[in-house]
């Protein structure tokens, strides 16, 4: 008997039942989880995480890693904040400047990792520290008093949805399309599975990850600019502090293999939602700080366990090939 | 092809032997005699050509403000100000202080992340004839201190908020605290703020006590609390950064910026928060640090010790002031950020 399609999907994305159970539990215990305001709040808070988690996931799938996104986020916020406060910059100008700053960080990471073949872990750990220093050097004091045009970036709504959520949805859709329906997407997976085999197949094994570094840097800086616009202020020392850990957690909990070669953006989006819902629910419950840390740690381990079991469950629920029909023996 | 085992062993022994010899030589050449140390003792402020400023929380906006004034004062008196980079880590702080002591920097001003943990460094500095000034508190082994009571800052804010609650809410309403339980100064501020408020306004309902020191976390925590308690009246923050995030969450939820039944307050005296106070919004108060006074003290206190003043005479106690709309001090502190 074949397993129903819905069961197979659940086996492929085990975070779906986990998120459903969490939502039911938080609603039952607080009575205010499944409210429009709260759900929009979670979506808005998670939007910047999704915007950065998506390109990071693509980078990890290709076998690379970027730990500098937290500091790039801060640099993007500082760059946009500077233009918005000191020069009354337009939203477009602020966004472009942030993207430029992010691309610059991505280019350094890409050149060192893809061009020179240095370890992405060590290189991006170095840029994580260096870029934070640059951001703090550029703006040691808090930035406030942004232009109204810039405030629109994080404060406007389109069809009832906050603009950060709209931007996150666009990022997910475009990246999803690239990853699933284009040769570039297949190349990203191929490089992650086997660099040598991809090279021999004619895939540009340096340029593709280099481009992904640029994209990750640009979107991390954009996320910083969005958050600066939402808050109406930038503190270069605390902006995006520890953000890289949240991004990496969302990516890995979403089922992307750190070794590269496998993972899906649906899983990453579920990972982002899982983290957002967990954080929000624990706050709603009023769980003390240190117990929140314990709960988050345990939940992450459980999610990681499910991500580990997912391929096995998928294999178990996959439709079995029909037995070959006996070849009639000629009389 | 693999190397012969004896060759790699010989190389290993060579390396370790060389490293050991280097360590021994360094130990033998390290100045350890008390007479040598005494040569470095500052006999007057003229002997202090360099001051080491060790501030571990470089990510806080206050750091930039204090450093700005300390640098200006150092330039004024012709002293070189050298700074550490501890990245908010006690182990890095200890290591950096050991370096300053080994370099015989004549005066060290240090803000201990864990006060008890730095008694050893303070004692080592003093026995080497260096001046040790404790920032933000006191140690047993010190030449002098620069103090400003973190608990007092919290208390000032808590009391003002409680008075406001009684006058504007009849003492009945909902409050959320954004706190810090992770470091000593945070715990002191939290205790001062919460104890003072709950004692003076016991009928107020505490609907949240969440960890938050930055605007982003403050925003998301208060957003979540508002989902359950849309009638939240008050937010008090351990830092102005966190309280600023709380303010944004309330505005985002549709609260008018000058709502008469809402109170947000923080600590530090960050520029963004002070501007909101000045504008007349419901961000009503900040327990502000006097950046210029603290920055000047970072230079003046060790120089006073070098000129022979005692701990009691040289030490500076910089008051934390609660600033509200209309206070002359509000404009003064805002101008310090310029």
TrEMBL record, chain A:
N-terminal signal peptide: none
Record flagged with keyword rRNA-binding: no
Regions that span the bilayer: 15-35, 42-61, 96-118, 165-184, 205-226, 238-258, 265-284, 290-310
Name of this protein: ABC transporter permease
Membrane topology: Multi-pass membrane protein
GO cellular component terms, A-Z: plasma membrane
Major location (coarse): membrane
InterPro entries, sorted: ABC_transp_permease (IPR001851)
Keyword Transmembrane: yes
UniProt GO molecular function: transmembrane transporter activity
Domain of life: Bacteria
Keywords: Cell membrane, Membrane, Transmembrane, Transmembrane helix
CDD domains linked to this entry: TM_PBP1_transp_AraH_like
Location(s) in or outside the cell: Cell membrane
TrEMBL record, chain B:
Pfam families: Peripla_BP_4
Record's subcellular location: Cell envelope
GO molecular function, one term: carbohydrate binding
Keywords: Signal
Highest taxon of source: Bacteria
GO CC, alphabetical: cell envelope
Location, primary (coarse class): other
Family classification: Belongs to the bacterial solute-binding protein 2 family.
Name under which the protein is recorded: Ribose transport system substrate-binding protein
